[in-house]
Amino acid sequence: MEGVVIPEPLTLHTADGVRIDAGHARGDGDVCFILAHGFTCSWRQPALRRIAGALNRHGGVVGFDFRGHGRSGGCSTVGDQEVLDVDAVVAAARRRGYGRIVLTGFSMGGAIAVRHAALHGGVDAVVSVSAPARWYYRGTVPMRRVHWVIERRVGRMAVRLLRGTRIAPTGWDPVPEAPHEVAERIAPVPLLVVHGDADPFFPLEHGHQLYDAACDPKELWIERAFGHAETAATPDLIKRIGGWATNAVSLAPGPTAPGD
């Protein structure tokens, strides 16, 4: 992570036996940011390293690769079983003594962050940046390309060769709950939804749909001239996210599990 010393490489294992590659940068206090990257990305890439360095000023940081990405094992299910990856990382952060966990996801990682917080709980604040609110969206050229990559054998082969991302050849069965369908279950954990008005993948309606589906406490930031996810995130935006999260966890009553 750029600007951050990582004394502890982590190899974690999920409940279904997938090996997860991660790295932990110790920070002051008991707040830890867990960074959930976008599709075909990795916590080792410069954009995530830069974000991790900025957030490390607010607390500890754990970056990790979702299954099928980077140095992690398994195959990507593009938002379904990845909640188990997050579960393993949250547990690792808790074992290292962090009392407040901020789950921060970008694009696919934002959708997974919402689903994990809603279905598994155990975190103290959630930040979703540039996330889809619903599945199967094909309304933009970039998303039509993403679906080609996921759904076609030649697309899966191409993204494996070009990006090192391994995608499960079988589709969803059953289809997992979409982020907007479960967002209301995150409360009383605070949720921040961040979306750009220049996002080439998901238009603003996704940010609004996710925010409208959630319950208080929640906030929606519409960022002018902001494109998509981690690669477009400016230092100022990350600084503001760090400040929001620090304040949110200081006011939050603590993590809850689903059904509490």
Automatic annotation (TrEMBL):
The Serine aminopeptidase S33 domain, residue ranges: 34-159
Listed Gene3D superfamilies: alpha/beta hydrolase
Repeat as UniProt keyword: no
Keywords for the protein's UniProt record, in alphabetical order: Hydrolase
One Pfam match: Hydrolase_4
Matches recorded under SUPFAM superfamilies: alpha/beta-Hydrolases
Gene Ontology MF terms in the entry: hydrolase activity
Protein name, per record: Alpha/beta fold hydrolase
Taxonomic lineage from the root: Bacteria, Bacillati, Actinomycetota, Actinomycetes, Streptosporangiales
